[in-house]
Amino acid sequence: MNLDLSQFFTEYESLVAQVDAVFHKVSGNFVSEVRCKEGCSDCCHALFDVTLIEAMYLNSKFSELDEIRRNEILIEADKADRKAYLLKKKVSKEASEVDHSEILLRTAKERLRCPLLDSADKCALYAYRPITCRIYGIPLDIGGKSHTCGLSGFVTGHPYPAVKLERIQDMLLSLSNRVLDAVGSKYADFRLMHVPVSTALMTVYSDEFFGSAGSLGDAPAEAGAAESGGEDA
Length: 233
Fold this sequence. Notes:
The protein is mostly helical. The protein has helices spanning about 5-30, 50-60, 65-95, 100-110, 130-135, 165-185, 195-200, 205-210, 220-225; strands at about 50, 140, 145, 165, 195. It has nine helices and five strands; from the N terminus they run αβααααβββαβααα. The strands form two sheets. Strands 3-2-4 form a three-stranded mixed β-sheet. The chain has a two-stranded antiparallel sheet with strand order 1-5. The protein starts with 5 loop residues before the first helix and ends in a 9-residue tail after the last helix. Mean pLDDT is about 85; it is low at about 215-233. InterPro entries: Puta_zinc/iron-chelating_dom.
C-alpha cells in the first residue's frame, strides 16, 4: 500500500496526547485511588479490541522492531489470537442468556496475556500502546455505567468523574473511516472494525486486504470477524 498515513497517524497521536493528559489529571487528583505503577501488568491481561487506526498505527511501530523480536512476538500473537477467538465465541453464546451489563462484567473477568508483554512483564511497544491501555486505571463511563480497574482504590458506589469512553471511540472510528475513504476500501463492514492487538500485529495492511482498486479476491477473513463492540476492560 503506497498511501502516506503520516497525516492520520499525527492526528491519532494528538488524540493520544489528550487522553494521556486526562489520565495524568485524574491520577493527580486521586493519588491514592489510581495505583498504576511500573511492574503492574493487570491491563496487559484484559480482553479488549482496538479500532482500525489504532491497529494500523501499532502495526507500523511493530514493523520497526528487529526481525528476531518480531518473530518471537508473532508466535505469542498467534496463540493469543486463537484464545481471543474462543473467549469471544463463549461471550457471544452467553449474550442471548444474560443482559448486556452482565456480559460486560464477565468479559472484564476474562484474562488474556498481551503478546507484546515480555518475560519481565514489560511492553515491547509501551510508548505506542493503544488508548485502552492508557486509561485503564481510571474510572470509565461505558454505556452509562462506571467501570475501573479492580486493583484501584476507587470505592464502589462513590461518585467519581468518569471518562466517557464512547466519545473517544467515536473519534477513533471517525479517523478510521477517513483512512478507509483514503485507501478506497469497498468493504462496508470495515467501518466498525475492532480487532484484538494480536490480530493487529499479524495483519498485512495491503491494498488486497482493504479491497482497494487494483486488488483481487474476496474480503479477507479478518473482515468477517470484525467486532462492533470494543473496550470492556
